[in-house]
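Local shape tokens:
==================
===
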Amino acid sequence: MADGRDAGTREEQDSPDRPTAAMRALPEVPERLAESARTIPGGARWLRDWQGLLADRLAAWGLDLDLAPRQPAWAGRCAVVVPVVRQDGDRPERCVLKLTVPHEEALPEPDALALWDGTGAVRLLAASRPDFALLLERLDGDSSLHDVPLDATPGPWGAVVRQLSIRPADSAAWAAIPHLAAAAEEWTDTLPARWDELGEPFPRWLMESALEVCQSRGAVGRRSDHDVLVHADLHYANLLPSSPGQLRHFTAIDPKPVLGDAEYAVAPMLWNRLDELDAGDPAGHLRAHGTALALAAGLDAELAHGWTVVREVRNALFYLGHGLTGDAQRSLWVASSVLGRTLDGLPPVSGLPVL
């Protein structure tokens, strides 16, 4: 725990002359998050205000910091996660406080966590939606599925996907989840338009492969009876051990939820850890890994590959539009390789940026 001081009196908090003892004890934003936050609209303001937000949430939810002096908080690209303790009756409860840089993609996160209710995903204890603040159960943040050998990851990953793949119902929480089919229908128009704007930067056949999936899985003329709640960012680092010290059973964190084909979840597992693929046949290993992931989760492997193409074509167009050539080449390598037609002219896997 920190030095035991609470958020201070109201008089101390309102004083413009000096920071309160509690404010002085609060951690700094890790530099990785600070850099990425500045690229998000409103992120610079959030960086200026976030310690006040943290102090407010500590006071409102009766929390104490559980950080050693100068110990940094955990952070990703869009959020900072601070270990805290709250009293639960006569015993302390170890939790984490997650503060996210406000952005649209994060809006349905508490809804998805509430729907999963601790099954397969981290348990939501409290939420302050206007602040993009969540109180969550604490998991083992020092390990992840990334610590499991690559070829041993399909089993535990698939087990989590099976738990997360719940069917929709009529409720406000479900209404907040965006529909993948509607997005796919939109991408049918926007992807080729962007490809044309950028000067047709990769072969037409790859664009057409992405469009074929969007057209067949879009809102018009498709069946939705197999739609489930999907964690769309279920990569290795977003799967933490369910119990400290073990690497067999995992729990998902940081969801980017959509309602649609569960196969949409496979792609992030393929665009990460490329440097661990078989150097003799990396494309074949990638495709085999995608198939193994799909089979472990009870999914259609070809549809999983198809959604991977869509997602990586979208990523490549984004990267190219922002001058990120290396990242675009990685996305194009993955998209074409899962189809068994790795594009010519790309760097070898060892020359691609690593996520």
